Amino acid sequence: MENLLVSLLNGVIYGLLLFMVSAGLTLIFGMMGVLNFAHASFYMLGAYFAYALQGSLGFWGALVASPILVGLVGVVVEKYFLRRVHHHGHAHELLLTFGLSFIIAELVKLFFGNFPVDYRIPASMDFALFRLGASNYPAYRILMGTVAVVMFVLVYLLLTRTRVGIVVRSAIYKPRMAEALGHNVPLVFMGVFGVGAALAGLAGAVAGAFYTTNPNMALELGVMVFVVVVVGGLGSMGGAMLASLLIGVMTSLSVGVDYSLADALAWVGAGDWAQGVGGLLTLKLSSVAATIPFALMLLVLMVRPSGLMGDKN
Amino acid sequence: MKSSTWFALALGVGLLVALPALTTPSLLNASIQMLIAALFACAFNVLCGQGGMLSFGHAAYFGVGTFATVHAMNAFNGAGLVPTPLMPLAGAAAGLLVGIFAGWFATKRTGTYFAMITLALAELLHALAPHLKGVFGGEAGISTMRMPAWGFTFGSSTEVYYLTLAWVLLSLGLLYLYTLTPVGRLTLGLRENTHRLRFLGYDVHRLNVTVFAISAMFAGVAGGLQALNTESANYVLLEGHVSAAVVLNSYIGGVSVFLGPALGASLMTFFGYAVSDLTRSWLLYQGILFVLVMMFMPTGLTGFFRWIRVNRKAHGLTALLPLLVAGVLAGALLSAGTVFTVEMLQRFFSQDYRSMAALHPGTGWAPIALFGRDWLPTSVSTWAVPLGLCAAGGALVYLVQRMWQALVERSEEMQAPSNAAAAAQGDAP
Which value does ipTM take for this structure? Predict the structure, then answer.
């Protein structure tokens, strides 16, 4: 029971982290129609900037400075790269961000080496917050979840309760009309792109210390984030939230499940046959936990191609 | 096709056939890699350039082809139904089957969704592969032997080269013929306007799956050739960087021309081979080149050649030549500056250099050997070199822009009086 609770909690926090990255991606997609392939690279940059800065600013200072830097990188990407190729169409923009993600990964390897760096949580945070049965629950995980939740509440309030939010939403809904009314829509786009990047950077700065910080982290998380947006429905914030939590909880729970398809078949009396066949049938669910989100994605594509909460297109 | 195109093709094929007599064995091995990469890129281009479906996971079909061929090689031992030279057929079959399955899912959606689904499908296979030891051989991979068949031993790289060349030429020929078939024309329709195709009564999803499967099949052939070449297969083949490389290569070559991706892939593979001993940052250069192409030359290298041809007709070679020379010089200066900066940084931030500096504290930063000279990383003169190179390159770029504008203006002026004269002549009688 405690195990279940712990993995459930872990899953929710991982899901919140996924949401922190996919929220920015969804926001940018909804606004500009650009799928930003480099978004997960911003997550990685966040972790590496925080790692590089923590020597001079301390852990908490780096946690604040790193997202700001990543946001600035995002602004540069939007202003000097994406805007230049906008007239070539969305596929072209996707390819450009793909190339940028490639360059960012290689630059990270150039400066920090092609191996995990020693970015870890500060000693002051390295304690158990509470006990769940026999296991201690690390305080840092709770901190990650809290940061994510606070971030969302702030972004949500900003979008729905302030004047800036109104302008942003109108620029997403009817960019030409908003421009005709005298709002600087390119500036809004740049700002949203920067904020989305900063959110991803914050997620990276927070999560990089807990998980590993290596040059592959962008690809690993990036694929997961893409799965999230396909499952949730591109452009839908609620869908992204639901899918993030779902995938977080599912991967976390499946790690603890020691059954295979053969065990399920044993229920109907075909267990021995399945053991004989081997291959996929005898693979333990725990060992293929990483593939579960992809299977979920294929399932969603079969029954509901527009995603859980996406519009029919 | 025009006779000049036929001539160029015959010349190219002749050169490829004569290649083993002209090069060293290691270059011949690189040529095999280039041919395989070229076929892979062309197969990818059926889907991407012609069908307008951007796939980020084509390594899956390449890798499946390799594994299927390795298994077939082990199963038939070069005899029986599928002798060694026909082995890539196994790759083709596997690519086709997996392509139909994956394509059915992926083509449920279009545009950016499609791109993400292909990426996720490839990652699914990559995540699953190490656990399926029987099929993918786990971490160690599986190996095989090229068995003698049809009187060939396939022991030397020359024989492997000719086998690869035959398969690549055959596949490229088939792919070209495919573009002439009705399905090939419909593929272009998929890229341009699916609504209209649907309106005309075509089953767009089935068409999408067909195009996807054909692309995957030829990717499988390329994978099969890879298996014949390396006699082994490892699940590393399914990794994302293989998919990334084919996207990069195809766009650098230019996806709007049939042989563009082949050109890009073989050029990039050759450069990758040539500089692999000299630099560790080849992928960075490749990425920078790709982004530059996407930003300033969206039609790729072949588009650039076409631009030259068109403008040679419009302005004449003598007017264009100084422009081209200055442009090439500017490019050389800028890339020299970039390469210097990257290599310097790479050496400065490398682990060896850092640990050396930690071993001898108090002596300051040791000089770095680069391009046959020692450079002090802390001195201004070191960094003035790339800065100077880039500044000179930038100035040249500015100059080229001015020259180009002048050329365009002059040709407009030339046209305007002649038009006026023509109009006057028309009025006269």
Answer: 0.83
Location of structure tokens 């991982």:
A14
* Secondary element (H or E) of residue A279: none
Distance separating the N- and C-terminal Cα atoms of chain A: 43
Q: What is the pLDDT of residue B419?
A: 57
CATH of segment(s) A2-257: 1.10.3470
Is B137 in contact with B235 (CB distance < 8 Å)?
yes
Q: Which of A36, A87, A108, A110 to mutate to test the interface with B (most CBs of B within 10 A)?
A: A110
Give the number of A-B residue pairs with CB atoms closer than 8 Å.
Answer: 115
Q: In chain A, what are the domain boundaries?
A: 2-257
How far apart CA B225 and CA B194 sit, in angstroms, is 34
Domains and CATH numbers, chain B: 7-299 (1.10.3470), 316-409 (no CATH)
pLDDT digits (tens, 9 = 90+) for B200-241: 888 888 889 999 999 999 999 999 888 888 888 888 888 878
Contact A110/B at CB under 8 A: yes
Q: What is the mean pLDDT of chain A?
A: 83
The pLDDT > 70 percentage for chain A reads 90
A58 vs A60: CA distance, rounded Å? 6
* Helix ranges restricted to H, A181-277: 185-210, 217-232, 237-255, 261-267, 271-277
- A220 to chain B: closest CA residue: B123
Q: What is the pLDDT of residues B60-72, one digit of tens each?
A: 999 999 998 888 8
A95 touches chain B (CB under 8 A): yes
pTM: 0.84
Is B119 within 8 Å of chain A by CB? yes
Task: Say if A211 is an interface residue toward chain B (CB within 8 Å).
Answer: no
